[in-house]
UniProtKB/TrEMBL annotation:
Name recorded for this polypeptide: NAD(P)H-binding
UniProt-listed SUPFAM superfamilies: NAD(P)-binding Rossmann-fold domains
Taxonomic source organism: Pelagirhabdus alkalitolerans
Pfam families (alphabetical): NAD_binding_10 (PF13460)
Organism domain of life: Bacteria
Domain spans labelled NAD(P)-binding: 7-193
PANTHER family linked to this entry: FLAVIN REDUCTASE-RELATED, UPF0659 PROTEIN YMR090W
């Protein structure tokens, strides 16, 4: 399986590309924004595609033509304005879904926000609400796109070392989770067809990632 990792230069994306490259039956294609970001991924033996999420659907489609699955783990980041949140976290995500469809790629895994319900939009602090709105509509677009999708809702992301253990449920209490563990969840999600059509929240816990995913109904 060849996997296009969108947002590969982010922290989750870097972990995921390395994990994919360490498997025997998967390869990664890293979608990045800048030529100077290539070196890290080429040293891992991964392909790269330099594409800006604010470019056209056709530009993104060119990167998806030879892959079997797409993982969206891109984000505008906490230090950008509402305009970039709309352009990357919403429109960028929607364009990648449409590009994958045009290329005939069915498997799509989305890294979302912990809670993207309408109720959460109303509860969210003013500075965070635009991000929740963007994720709400991107998630909804994916659900309706006739894709083999999975939506992963991580808790508060940390840079702690991954433990390989999580709490993973359709609904769980809020909590934190290492980015490395989310990358591991994404890897195993791609390997488990039983996760197709599912979405779940993930925080740190005491059950192995594989066991947790096997219990998702």
């Amino acid at each position: 399986m060849k996997v296009l990792v969108i947002g590969a230069n982010g922290q989750i994306g870097k972990h995921l590309v390395k994990m994919i490259q360490d498997t025997s039956d998967m390869t990664a294609k890293a979608m990045i924004r800048k030529e100077e970001q290539k070196d890290y991924f080429e040293k891992l033996g991964a392909e790269t595609a330099v594409v800006d999420l604010e470019s056209s659907i056709e530009s993104i489609q060119a990167a998806t033509e030879d892959v079997d699955a797409v993982v969206f783990t891109a984000g505008s980041g906490p230090n950008t304005g509402k305009d970039k949140t709309i352009m990357v976290d919403l429109d960028g995500a929607v364009k990648t879904i449409e590009a994958a469809k045009k290329a005939g790629v069915k498997r799509y895994v989305m890294v979302s926000s912990f809670d993207t319900t309408r109720e959460e939009i109303q509860r969210a602090p003013e500075g965070f609400a635009p991000y929740v709105v963007a994720k709400h509509y991107a998630d909804d677009w994916l659900r309706k796109a006739d894709m083999d999708y999975t939506i992963v809702h991580p808790g508060g992301l940390t840079n702690d070392d991954g433990t390989g253990k999580v709490t993973l449920k359709e609904k769980t209490d809020r909590g934190n989770v290492p980015r490395e563990d989310i990358a591991h969840v994404l890897l195993e999600t791609l390997q488990k067809p039983s996760t197709i059509g599912k979405e779940f929240q993930v925080i740190e816990g005491d059950q192995t990632i594989s066991e947790s995913l096997d219990q998702i109904k």
